[in-house]
Amino acid sequence: MTSLTEYSQQSKLAFASYAILSRGPITDIDPLISVGMTDAEARSFVSDWVVRDVYSPPNGLSATVFQRKAGGQTYLAVR
């Protein structure tokens, strides 16, 4: 993967980490749109990614583990 492609992917994951998501397949694009993704970006994200785990204690920290549907790579996004 080229650096530019990797940076683009990482920025989408960081962006998505601000959405309120639950474990499993992302079935609703509204949480992604509510954090600023366009409809097309949200639909593309949903078709490519699944949420493997979410950690969100009341102190404001949030960590989301995303897994790519094709290939199975996992990524941790912290905010």
Describe this structure in words.
A hairpin with a 7-residue loop joins β2 and β3. The chain has a four-stranded antiparallel beta sheet. With 79 residues, the chain is of the alpha+beta class. The chain has three helices and four strands; from the N terminus they run αβααβββ. Helices cover 37% and strands 25% of the residues. The model has no long low-confidence stretch (mean pLDDT 93).
Radius of gyration: 12 Å
Structural class: alpha+beta
Number of helices: 3
Q: Which strand order do you get reading across the main beta sheet? A: 1-2-3-4
Query: How far do the termini sit from each other?
Result: 24 Å
Shape: globular
Order of helices and strands: HEHHEEE
